């Protein structure tokens, strides 16, 4: 078997690069692969963040040096156009590539062209199976008493579910970022052998522990969209039940669903709670904190948990966050919706400073295996595993999987 790295066509139907989320994840993927010596050709709609010299990039939504926003031609048309552009490359130059890495909404044409050209098609899966995400968001809304927002990506949409299922079925391999996400696919009939684990990461140059400050009060933080699906109502409930409010702070950062803010106005004004809204630097915020409260109902692999661990902040997370936390070792995990358990965990780390230091040290130590450099190595391994699977189990007929 050849030891040469696979030749990768990386297709991202969004602007590449940004402070967080999938834009940053995709940027880190291609930069990390390039640093490992992988020949990568990137097709993205535009580039927001400088890339290393020598990395081949085509911007599909840039005309005469100016970025064309998706909304100018409609979101669906923008995704379809990007998908068509990448498929054309594969039809003309398929022999130049071994793997095409797709992201949601630009998969179907690309995967058909990949199959015709003998190129392995993989799809990034940044969140739980769509049906699972819809069901869990509905459960969260019912628990919280706040409806899923009309424009939420988690609002049940049969047409979108059918589209995403078609994408899942079209590719050779689905790249899943956590055991939780893998389970949601297996439960909905996806053969386990089509699911290959990857991991996401965090930026070690931005996230690091803050200086010790004995004068700072105990501080918990929630970072994310203020809505039921993220479990903010559970975090508020646990904070209030814990009784820490008069001696500690609970910082809430991120945009908030207006209906959620109105419904939980009393809890958001409780002692110790500080609603920060959008913050310019999550890294700076983390350095003020001791614990992350993130009792989400559904995630993929919550990047904020990795960033917390890299900052020496203890993650108190639900089992649905996909966070790489070993309960009681480098963080604390509770089952989705178990506010009693979350309250106990929060109170314990508040009451036991030595235990808090132990968990924080372990979280930071674990984070050294969760960097974007490590994620790139895992992604390269995933490509190799996919190529082996395709060669031995699939051949030219993906239906054998």
Description:
The chain is of the alpha/beta class and 401 residues long. The protein folds into 2 domains: 8-202 and 372-400, Rossmann fold; 218-367, Rossmann fold, CATH 3.40.50.2000. Helices cover 42% and strands 17% of the residues. It has 15 helices and 15 strands. It has helices at 21-35, 70-73, 75-93, 108-117, 130-144, 158-170, 179-186, 232-242, 258-263, 265-268, 282-286, 303-310, 339-351, 353-367, 372-394; strands at 8-16, 40-47, 56-59, 62-63, 66-67, 99-102, 120-124, 173-176, 195-197, 218-223, 248-253, 273-277, 291-294, 314-318, 332-334. Strands 3-2-1-6-7-8-9 form a 7-stranded parallel beta sheet, with helices on both faces. Residues 392-401 have low confidence and may be disordered.
Set out the fold topology.
Blueprint: E1 8-16, H1 21-35, E2 40-47, E3 56-59, E4 62-63, E5 66-67, H2 70-73, H3 75-93, E6 99-102, H4 108-117, E7 120-124, H5 130-144, H6 158-170, E8 173-176, H7 179-186, E9 195-197, E10 218-223, H8 232-242, E11 248-253, H9 258-263, H10 265-268, E12 273-277, H11 282-286, E13 291-294, H12 303-310, E14 314-318, E15 332-334, H13 339-351, H14 353-367, H15 372-394
Parallel strand pairs: 1-2, 1-6, 2-3, 6-7, 7-8, 8-9, 10-11, 10-13, 11-12, 13-14, 14-15
Antiparallel strand pairs: 4-5
Helix pairs in contact: 1-15, 3-4, 8-13, 12-14
């Amino acid at each position: 078997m050849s030891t040469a790295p696979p030749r990768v066509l990386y297709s991202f139907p969004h602007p590449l690069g940004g402070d967080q989320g999938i834009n940053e994840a995709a940027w880190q993927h291609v930069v990390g692969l390039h640093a490992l010596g992988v020949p990568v050709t990137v097709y993205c709609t535009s580039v927001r963040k400088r890339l290393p010299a020598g990395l081949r990039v085509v911007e599909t939504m840039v005309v005469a040096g100016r970025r064309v926003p998706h909304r100018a031609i409609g979101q669906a048309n923008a995704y379809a156009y990007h998908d068509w552009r990448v498929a054309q490359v594969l039809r003309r130059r398929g022999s130049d590539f071994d793997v095409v890495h797709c992201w949601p909404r630009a998969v179907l044409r690309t995967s058909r062209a990949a199959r015709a050209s003998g190129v392995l098609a993989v799809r990034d899966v940044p969140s739980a199976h769509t049906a699972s995400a819809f069901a869990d968001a509905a459960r969260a809304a019912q628990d919280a008493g706040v409806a899923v927002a009309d424009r939420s990506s988690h609002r049940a949409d049969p047409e979108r579910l059918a589209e995403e299922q078609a994408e899942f079925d079209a590719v050779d391999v689905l790249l899943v970022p956590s055991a939780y996400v893998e389970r949601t696919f297996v439960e909905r009939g996806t053969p386990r052998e089509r699911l290959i684990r990857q991991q996401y990461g965090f930026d070690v140059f931005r996230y690091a522990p803050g200086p010790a400050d004995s004068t700072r009060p105990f501080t918990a933080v929630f970072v994310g969209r203020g809505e039921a699906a993220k479990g903010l109502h559970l975090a508020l409930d646990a904070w209030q039940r814990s009784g820490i409010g008069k001696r500690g702070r609970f910082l809430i950062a991120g945009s908030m669903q207006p209906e959620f803010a109105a419904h939980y106005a009393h809890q958001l004004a409780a002692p110790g709670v500080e609603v920060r809204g959008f913050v310019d630097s999550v890294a700076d915020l983390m350095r003020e904190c001791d614990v992350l409260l993130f009792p989400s109902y559904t995630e993929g692999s919550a990047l904020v948990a990795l960033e917390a661990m890299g900052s020496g902040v203890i993650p108190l997370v639900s089992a649905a966050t996909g966070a790489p936390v070993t309960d009681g070792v480098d963080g604390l995990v509770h089952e989705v919706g178990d506010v009693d358990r979350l309250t106990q965990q929060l109170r314990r780390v508040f009451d036991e400073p030595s235990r808090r230091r132990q968990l924080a040290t372990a979280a930071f130590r674990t984070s050294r295996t969760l960097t974007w450099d490590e994620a790139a190595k895992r992604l390269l391994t995933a490509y190799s595993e996919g190529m082996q699977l395709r060669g031995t189990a699939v051949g030219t007929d993906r239906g054998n999987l």
